Amino acid sequence: MIPLGSLFLLLVLPLCAYECARTKKNLVLIDVLDQDLVDKAYTTSWRRYMHRYPDNFTCWFVKSHPNLPWYSFEKDVLWLKKPQTTSRTPLCKLLDAVEVFSPQLDLYDFIICPSHSSFLVFPDLLKFLSHLPLQKAASIDQELSPLDKTPPLFFEGACTILSKDLAQLLLKNKNSLIEAASKNIFEQNQTLAQFFDAQNISITRHLLHRFENKFHRPLKVLKQMDEGIFLFQVKLKGDAVFRYRLEKIIHQELFQITYEGLLEPDRF
Q1: Exposed, middle or buried: residue 169 (CB in 10 Å: 0-12, 13-18, 19+)?
Q2: How are beta strands 204-206 and 138-141 bridged, if at all?
Q3: Ramachandran category for residue 224: left, alpha or beta (phi over 0 → left; psi -120 to 50 → alpha)
Q4: What's the DSSP call for residue 204?
Q5: pLDDT for 231-261, tens place per residue?
Q6: Within 10 Å of residue 109's Cβ, how many Cβ atoms?
Q7: Whole-angstrom Cα distance, residue 250 to residue 230?
Q8: Pairing of strands 231-236, 204-206
Q9: What are 106-154's pLDDT values in tens digits?
Q10: Beta bridge mates, 237
């Protein structure tokens, strides 16, 4: 018969080992085109909070330029030698960025790939990550159609989260993935979906709140936001000046609400 104290250790030690295996540090790679006035509003917004949690999040803007070595670092920007075009090639760009950091991937639990226009609440994101497994974990923002029994993967969403083993798996298959994606740059999401499906990797979904099409001030729509939500998508319709002026307000108020405690603690 196993003594009660030994039984306790047998139950608790595996849990401790699992938790100790977590670095609780994550790599954030922010895809930036930096070709429009509104991109400046996004960069200003990110820099308000992206370096506030160095123990948990290492954040880099990822930009492209054709006249560079393979890559270079400048402050909080990772520059990649790639043509700077108006069409997004997120899969190829992500793979290049992950490859740059491949020698350090063991330092991180998850690779987080948000769009430039998105807004992240890092404390709530950290809570979400604590419930994800450390291996074979992929999470995307995705709204389901009533006809969808399982969510398809759309890689060009507001934020994609990968465990480091999946990031390494993508790197091992980088050439074939890029070749498949290059056949149709508008179907790169399908390329990744098919790859994960072939690997029997299931996809988790995370919630997001969208500020799109029509202008709404965050302070006016708080009750529509899900508690604990960590992801907001901000992308209005209109010309660059119109979007810059209004999206700047949205990002500013989101920061005030989520990071400066505006209307806390009784937010809802």
Answers
A1: middle
A2: parallel
A3: alpha
A4: E
A5: 998 989 888 899 999 999 999 999 998 898 7
A6: 21
A7: 15
A8: unpaired
A9: 999 999 999 999 999 999 999 999 999 999 999 888 654 444 455 444 4
A10: none
Show the tokens assigned to 157: 């969403």
Tokens of 199: 């690997």
d(CA 223, CA 208): 14
- Answer yes or no: is pLDDT of 6 > 50: no
Task: Measure CA of the first residue to CA of the last residue in the chain; give whole Å.
Answer: 53
CA distance 253 to 120: 13
Give the count of alpha carbons within 13 A of 43, CB side only: 16
Q: Which two tokens stand for residue 168?
A: 């390494």
Residue 83 gets the label, from left (phi > 0), alpha (psi -120 to 50) or beta, of beta
Q: Which residue has the higher pLDDT, 27 or 238?
A: 27
pTM above 0.85, yes or no: no
Strands 71-74 and 138-141: unpaired
